[in-house]
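[job 0412] stage=fold_complex status=start
inputs:
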Amino acid sequence: MARFAPAVAKLISELGRLPGIGGKTAQRLAFHLLSVPEKNALSLAEAIVAARQKIKMCSVCSNLTQTDPCEICSSTTRDRSIICVVENPRDVAAIERMRDYNGLYHVLHGVLSPSDGIGPDKIKLQELIRRLQEHQEVEEIILAMNPSVEGEATALYIARLLKMSGLKTTRPAHGIPMGGDLEYADEITLARAFSGRSQI
Amino acid sequence: MARFAPAVAKLISELGRLPGIGGKTAQRLAFHLLSVPEKNALSLAEAIVAARQKIKMCSVCSNLTQTDPCEICSSTTRDRSIICVVENPRDVAAIERMRDYNGLYHVLHGVLSPSDGIGPDKIKLQELIRRLQEHQEVEEIILAMNPSVEGEATALYIARLLKMSGLKTTRPAHGIPMGGDLEYADEITLARAFSGRSQI
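[job 0412] stage=fold_complex status=done
writing structure:
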């Protein structure tokens, strides 16, 4: 006989498609959703539908937003002379969490990765170039891609593209994380920390 | 400003209520659901709604099922003289997976746990007693509760309840798991393995 009723099997398979959710976890989640009060299970379903209906990309910065332009792009207190370019909306959330950056953002929704067939036209790069042409008040571009091979390559590619524009392009510093231990830092991080040393 | 748009925050909080899903994972899942094709995200929402609508408890064995009585209870090829009592529907799935048991099941949906206020009336125990009175063909009850303190106590409680009925009540063997190492087995498991030793 089938191990699970069809509707349960379908739920397990849908949950198993989420990233980081394996077969056993999908089973546990499915039975959890079947054992909680019906209201709680349905409110998850509703939240998924509502998020997909309401959340769009901001027409200016491509961040996910419920209003267009997004809250950050339409804010009057933000510094419009700096744009921080990031890979995805989660990076915006992380940077906002530090409460130390008051400029604007541009979300690429990916990084250049030729081996995966992701070229400059697959990420929101054209949108960035157009935005810079339309908004002459921008003075600095922070390239805050992740320090991965693809992230570094994308930052370098954008830096070259912007070379002629006269814009200041910067990268956040790499180094030993706060609370980290010199002894356990990998060689590349340590080398970056040394080459980026500053006078105290 | 708010870190996430309201619909995203709501989705993250709903996902974070699932067992084993912390804040960071909920965020990752939410952004995943916003980045995949809309169809894929909605089919998860639909699977949740469909499962809650279609899946009920079997009126005979209390297992989760799409038909009533469930496939196992209504099967003509199963041995109706044995009932295996388990804590929850996942245990039924695990036992079915071994393809070695051909009897019926009874799902308690919990174990006795006085400290959590779970007494005999909070689990499907009355249903088991009634079922045994109505179905005189039952000869053996396998008490397959998990070998936890509560599981053992529940098995003992049911065994005492059934003492007068003349039914054979059994417990699956405890011992060293296949592929396990004597050296690493805990004392209680080892003691159980020795007291349950059999002649070869």
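[job 0412] summary: Residues 6-54 of chain A form a domain with the Helicase, Ruva Protein; domain 3 fold (CATH 1.10.8.420).
[job 0412] exit 0
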